[in-house]
Design a protein that fits this description.
CATH architecture of the largest domain in chain A: 3-Layer(aba) Sandwich
Strand order of the largest sheet of chain A: 1-2-6-3-7-17
Largest sheet of chain A: 6 strands, mixed
Radius of gyration of chain A: 23 Å
Structural class of chain A: alpha+beta
Largest interface: A-B, 100 and 89 residues
Mean pLDDT of chain A: 94
CATH superfamily of the largest domain in chain A: Zn peptidases
Helix content of chain A: 25-40%
Number of domains of chain A: 2
Strand content of chain A: 15-25%
Distance between the termini of chain A: 44 Å
Number of helices of chain A: 13
Oligomer: homodimer
CATH topology of the largest domain in chain A: Aminopeptidase
Chain lengths: ~450, ~450
């Protein structure tokens, strides 16, 4: 059965003279699973998505395994290993972010469509489109050459968007089986269209959620307002205490372990396309840049820590007014960390700050969430250079060297447990809307990703 | 036909030796109309309820009229006017609040039942039970004495729960016909069981809603966090700016027109049952009292203005975490005002404050909501004293004098248009659950209300 969007895809593909209909069909199938890892009602969808991967990787001739965890399964696949060859582990994830606010999507998030040279769907870029490019690169190499230049291990998890809670125990348990010389990851950004990008650093993360409780139920704001604390006001005061007036984080000791930027980084980053203050405004649509004084946008994003509110809520949020004094209010926080901040140490400092600044008249509950360490490596190592050459071959231009603002804590875990560094060769463009409505993936980066995989395996083998 | 609940009512009434079966039957009939004014699907029920009132008041020998408005009708009824007598206008409303959440009601809201000395139904206290006590007081006086000590005008509207949108034009149009010497209202609280209460003040209100916008859509908090302002953080900082550390409102000029408490008020209120700090904790369940320094709970509630957040929201509020930097965040504010603050003046000061304190990096939209003036009168005036005597005669104890924390803007409108002050003699106890599931009305307050009406008309005539 040929579904309508495949017809459209074929039309588009033919008009662009690209013979990748089957690859697009694979991606569309992969994207159609609503594998939202944070939402327990989607547990079966996550599992079905893992099953699809197993089937795909098995058909390619790899030795696959579905590993159960306490929550969502981990998929591994390995080529027949030749001890004379280097081994490259390729990491990715098949789970996706939630889709809220659903009403802002132009097309349903789990019904991928091709439009204007992009694939629109939740997970299109993060991370299904990127990991699938590597899978399809390996598939093409196996079909055309019958063998691979290096040994390959795919490690594809289903819990990245909830902080990979079960991956570290898995890595520890299968340390021997996962032994490798280098790790390749495409789960990061490309600074601008057509500009290949090598990432050598990531921010870490520490999350927590705070609930403040006041009266035992919602109260009439006229009858009781003024004599008891309002939890919505209290949560606002608590959130406001996190920064000083200028935007510096006001938590005691928060900056103690921050590694200063090196001179070459500041100089190189000033020239990276798509990362100026004006680019930040153009991409985000914000009315102004705002952040820690004394740093450029790139420096703020890639080398300085943050304290962000991901969600705040309390009281009546519907249409019109309701004169209620709410029983409780909450805020969800995430702190982005940079080398050499330690998430557990920051979590302690955050809790101490919240305890110290909790306004009077309410009780506080703090729920500590997931965390992950920041990462940094040397982009000028032997494998790093192979990655740079592969990027140049795949995209026709020397890559820029950057750090990333996002967090992939598992990269640091992989380094600590397997003792190997990761080449981060991201295919996400700034307007790919990851984690947001209308997530999309440029078809040219899908193709480029497949070329990148093939070039990388060859360069690593040299 | 005698319905089962009347049998039960009769049994209870007989066992308590109270001869008020007919009055209870009237109340039950009145309560059985689901006259929910905010819900257009109940428009015919509201009208039917007005029709019942017209019939009741006509049967009593009063001259009644049903006045159409743009929405729900207003009922008036007047006794034959003797120019030698004073005229008392009795204001009330026959519309009720919605019943949601319906699942929390122990019995259906529009099937009144008698249990534990209380009548349980939506509107039992607010306001059907209270206004009917006045009607039945007048009925009893007419039956027993053949005439009334004063001229009476009933003014009973069907839109109080939606802010009385059509009452001011009505008052302006019928100013002559509604001319009177004093107004009596039972739509407020009694501080504790068995403690007659005279209210001589109400807080006013000014509402607004603020929306802060940052990036054009939700952003990944890792990829963009640190370089642009977060609207959730910004709304928190804006809300936090409304109060100083101790709980004083920090808006320039906010307290300028606040009438200081008089010494007698502070002394009297310190002795009012049910209004201590401990009572506030017991009633609300809050962990501590909190408010403007230097004032007791009663003083904070009845004589000091507030700046309350009725709702705050932005970003992801669902289960788990989502590392999003939200595109916007909002807060709904209501300011309770006291004499001699002017809502329009306060609205201007609030807007100036919000403009001045809007954090950088976001744009702000302010939507001004409804407002109402505060009210105060002299409880020691001639009519005020008559009201106090009547309360003492009806309940066997001298009344306490209080102001109310809530707002009934129509009381100030009545003062401005008819030039007459209102005696607020509330019959609602703190556990009557007005506006909430399981609304109820103490039978002893129903009886007391009937006695109160008879005593009041006599005292006013003196």
């Amino acid at each position: 059965m040929t579904r309508p969007y495949f017809k459209l895809a074929r039309l588009w593909v033919q008009s662009h003279n690209i013979l990748m209909t089957e690859q697009l069909e694979d991606l569309f199938e992969f994207l159609r699973f609503p594998s939202v890892s944070t939402d327990s009602s989607h547990a079966e969808d996550v599992r079905a998505c893992a099953g699809w991967l197993i089937e795909k990787l098995t058909q390619m001739g790899l030795e696959t395994e579905l590993h159960e965890t306490a929550k969502h399964p981990i998929v591994t696949a390995r080529s027949k290993h030749d001890p004379a060859k280097k081994t490259c582990l390729i990491y990715g994830h098949y789970d996706v972010q939630p889709v809220d606010p659903i009403e802002l999507w132009d097309t349903p998030p789990f019904e991928p469509v091709l439009r204007d040279g992009r694939i629109w769907a939740r997970g299109a870029t993060d991370n299904k489109g990127q990991i699938l490019a590597h899978i399809l690169g390996v598939e093409a190499a196996l079909k055309e050459d019958g063998e691979l230049p290096v040994n390959i291990i795919f490690l594809i998890e289903g819990e990245e968007e909830i902080g990979s809670p079960n991956l570290v125990p898995f890595l520890q348990k299968y340390k021997e089986e996962l032994a490798c010389d280098v790790i390749a990851v495409s789960d990061t950004g490309m600074v601008a269209k057509g500009v290949p990008t090598m990432g050598y650093g990531l921010r870490g993360i520490a999350c927590c959620e705070v609930t403040l409780k006041g009266p035992s139920g919602d109260m009439h704001s006229g009858v009781y307002g003024g004599a008891i604390a309002n939890p919505a006001t209290a949560i606002a005061r608590l959130v406001a205490s996190l920064h000083d007036f200028d935007g510096n984080i006001a938590i005691d000791g928060f900056y103690d372990d921050v590694r200063p930027l090196e001179t070459w980084e500041r100089e190189a980053w000033a020239k990276v396309p798509g990362s100026s203050d004006q680019d930040t405004l153009d991409i985000t649509g914000s009315p102004a840049t705002f952040g820690e004084p004394g740093y450029s946008s790139a420096e703020r994003l890639w080398a300085r820590p943050t304290a962000e509110v991901n969600g705040i809520g309390g009281g009546y949020q519907g249409e019109g007014s309701k004169t209620v004094l709410p029983a409780e209010a909450m805020a969800k926080f995430s702190f982005r960390l940079v080398p050499d901040q330690e998430p557990k140490d920051i979590a302690k400092k955050v809790q101490a700050h919240l305890q110290k600044h909790c306004p009077p008249g309410v009780t506080m509950e703090i729920e500590v969430g997931h965390d992950g360490k920041p990462y940094i490596c040397d982009p000028h190592s032997e494998n790093g250079k192979a990655g740079q050459v592969a990027l140049e071959k795949a995209f026709g231009k020397a890559p820029v060297l950057i750090r990333e603002g996002g967090s992939i804590p598992i990269i640091q875990d992989l380094k600590e447990i397997l003792g190997v560094e990761s080449l981060m060769m991201g295919l996400a463009l700034p307007d790919c809307q990851i984690h947001a409505p209308n997530e999309n993936y440029y078809v040219e980066n899908f193709e480029g990703g497949i070329r990148l995989n093939r070039a990388l395996l060859k360069e690593l083998a040299k």
